[in-house]
């Protein structure tokens, strides 16, 4: 079907109407191919006309010449329970040079679900009237998946919100940069944001959106807070929501879970970049041994075509908590300290073993050798091996962030810093300069540590450090794997810090290719020091530095044996025993250099 101009009147409209449809199912989509070519070809739009609604809903628009080509449009219709039809309007302003055409109109997945003869098992729900068998995760999610509304009957209104009557029991965070906005119809900026809500699929329905236009700036954040929930078993609490991320400059949407009222919590999920003009459903399974809260954070991109939408947020298998979350306090090393110690006779210069009250020398704490029976002398230290799985930092911490935030670990914005990441959470533009898989598991689900160069500016540095290590042995070394790929990669350094003196042990700069590379750094005998990984940002975001599988090898200090040295061992001047193979090898294995003496 194409348009042929046959009048010279100003502001002509050519209108094509569809047949009327009775209803559509929850997964219904409409697609067609269109052609809009010519110097003054003008705009066109597709409208949805629903019985009982005076206001039409705009589903699709094209504003200008799109070149000598056929292009495909895909429109999400979703569940429309009332009769409806479409109107395709072509507008010409006075003169018209060009051709507009439409072809291959297709409806997909628009029928209601088919009835089933049986519907057994805890993971299924049998619809009351249509007799369809649907997944139980679709129950009470604010979407009529059955086609008769039975999957949305008897739902707790406190566990769901479609924003038709406000924010329900969700709240705007007062510590973020700005607020989410409740709106009907399209957002104010063209070529970004939804044209309609998800609940009703029309311009009558409400949803929340993040406005990316001025005065908001790159990486400004808007945070939405859920009500509080009681502890949940292993994934029995389910959070469902629908998000819309359309626009060339859409940046990031992320979900966090927290158990402390003053913390940012830990990342459950995030999505970067343009996800096309559609509402997308996301399901998250939540476990917690403590009362918790969910935070939904939207982050502004580098431009005005970065609007993000939220709608139909619901919880299943969760219980509201009638109380408050505690305030979490931390020490400067990020580890909690027991309130009381066992009965002991230790001096201030000794460490108290937490289980027994036994006293050991302070230099035996954090030396990679457990001297207490309960290993408490090594509990607040860096772990000997760290693969970052289970999102564990293994004692590594970021001193600069702690100085900026004090006891509050939230709202440090626009800072170049280390964070946990994995390939499964990358958006397409990141795949060229961030690891697709970790080194430990070689999968997209494995975790690694990376310095996110989408924050900060050229030359900014990010440090992550160990707690103070008391003592190491003569053959101590750090082995780690690093990933440095991207056109504007900066550098990675391994530093040694003792008191106020910092020295460089290892450095690497520039792109090293799209693979994990092994590195080894010799430490030897050192005392009361920290190891620091320092990433330096390049000239742009196209280059993230990542590390994984950090190992401290052979780092426990020498131990004086209560037995004489064997025939295969050499007795050092300080009574340590070392293998004779270690003599005269340019390594101070004895810690007093007696194994390297010319008189041997």
From TrEMBL:
Residues 1-112, 159-320, 384-557 form the MAM domain. Disulfide bonds join 140-155, 366-381, 565-577, 572-590. InterPro entries: ConA-like_dom_sf, LDL_receptor-like_sf, LDLR_class-A_CS, LDrepeatLR_classA_rpt, MAM_dom, MAM_domain-containing. PROSITE patterns: LDLRA_1, LDLRA_2, MAM_2. It holds the Pfam family Ldl_recept_a. GO terms for cellular component: membrane. Keywords: Disulfide bond, Repeat. PANTHER family: APICAL ENDOSOMAL GLYCOPROTEIN PRECURSOR, MAM AND LDL-RECEPTOR CLASS A DOMAIN-CONTAINING PROTEIN 1. This is MALR1 protein. The lineage of its organism: Eukaryota, Metazoa, Chordata, Craniata, Vertebrata.
């Amino acid at each position: 079907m194409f348009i042929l101009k046959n009048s010279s009147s100003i502001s002509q409209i050519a209108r094509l109407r569809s047949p009327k449809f009775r209803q559509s199912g929850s997964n219904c989509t409409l697609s067609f191919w269109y052609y809009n070519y010519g110097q003054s070809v003008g705009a066109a739009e597709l409208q949805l006309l629903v019985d009982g609604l005076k206001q039409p809903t705009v589903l699709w628009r094209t504003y200008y010449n799109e070149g000598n080509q056929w292009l495909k449009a895909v429109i999400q219709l979703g569940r429309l329970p009332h009769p409806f039809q479409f109107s395709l309007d072509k507008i010409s302003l006075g003169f018209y040079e060009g051709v507009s055409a439409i072809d291959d109109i297709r409806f997909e997945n628009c029928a209601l679900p088919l009835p089933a003869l049986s519907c057994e098992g805890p993971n299924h729900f049998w619809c009351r009237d249509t007799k369809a068998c649907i997944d139980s995760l679709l129950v009470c999610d604010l979407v009529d998946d059955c086609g008769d509304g039975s999957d949305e009957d008897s739902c707790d209104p406190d566990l769901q919100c479609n924003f038709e009557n406000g924010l329900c029991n969700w709240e705007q965070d007062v510590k973020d940069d700005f607020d989410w906005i409740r709106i009907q119809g399209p957002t104010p900026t063209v070529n970004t944001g939804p044209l309609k809500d998800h609940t009703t699929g029309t311009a009558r329905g409400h949803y929340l959106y993040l406005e990316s236009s001025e005065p908001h700036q790159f990486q400004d954040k808007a945070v939405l807070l859920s009500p509080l929930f009681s502890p949940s078993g292993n994934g029995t609490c389910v959070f469902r929501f629908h998000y819309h991320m359309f626009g060339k400059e859409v940046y990031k949407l992320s979900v966090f879970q927290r158990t402390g009222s003053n913390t940012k919590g830990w990342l459950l999920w995030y999505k970067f970049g343009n996800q096309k003009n559609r509402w997308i459903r996301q399901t998250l399974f939540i476990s917690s041994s403590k009362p918790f809260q969910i935070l939904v954070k939207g982050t502004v991109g580098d431009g005005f075509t970065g609007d993000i939408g939220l709608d139909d947020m619901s919880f299943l298998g969760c219980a509201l908590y009638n109380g408050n979350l505690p305030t979490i306090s931390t020490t400067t090393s990020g580890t909690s300290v027991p309130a009381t110690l066992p009965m002991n006779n230790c001096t201030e210069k000794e460490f108290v073993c937490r289980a027994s009250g036994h006293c050991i020398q302070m230099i035996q704490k954090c030396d990679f050798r457990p001297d207490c029976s309960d290993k408490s002398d090594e509990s607040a230290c860096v772990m000997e091996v760290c693969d970052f799985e289970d999102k564990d930092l293994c004692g590594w911490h970021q001193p600069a962030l702690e100085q900026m935030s004090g006891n509050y670990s939230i709202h440090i914005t626009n800072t170049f810093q280390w964070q946990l990441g994995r390939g499964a959470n990358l958006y397409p533009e990141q795949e060229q300069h961030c690891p697709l898989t970790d080194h430990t598991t070689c999968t997209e689900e494995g975790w690694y540590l990376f310095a996110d160069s989408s924050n900060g500016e050229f030359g900014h540095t990010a440090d992550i450090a160990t707690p103070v290590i008391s003592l190491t042995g003569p053959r101590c070394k750090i082995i780690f794997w690093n990933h440095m790929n991207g056109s504007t990669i900066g550098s990675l350094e391994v530093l040694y810090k003792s008191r106020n003196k910092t020295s460089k042990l290892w450095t690497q700069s520039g792109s090293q290719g799209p693979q994990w590379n092994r590195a080894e750094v010799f430490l030897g005998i050192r005392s009361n020091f920290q190891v620091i990984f320092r990433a330096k940002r390049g000239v742009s975001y196209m280059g993230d530095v990542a590390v994984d599988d950090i190992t401290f090898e052979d780092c426990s200090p020498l131990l004086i044996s209560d037995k004489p040295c064997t025939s295969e061992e050499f007795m050092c001047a300080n009574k340590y025993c070392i293998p004779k193979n270690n003599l005269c090898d340019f390594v101070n294995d004895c810690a007093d250099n007696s194994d390297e003496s010319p008189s041997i």
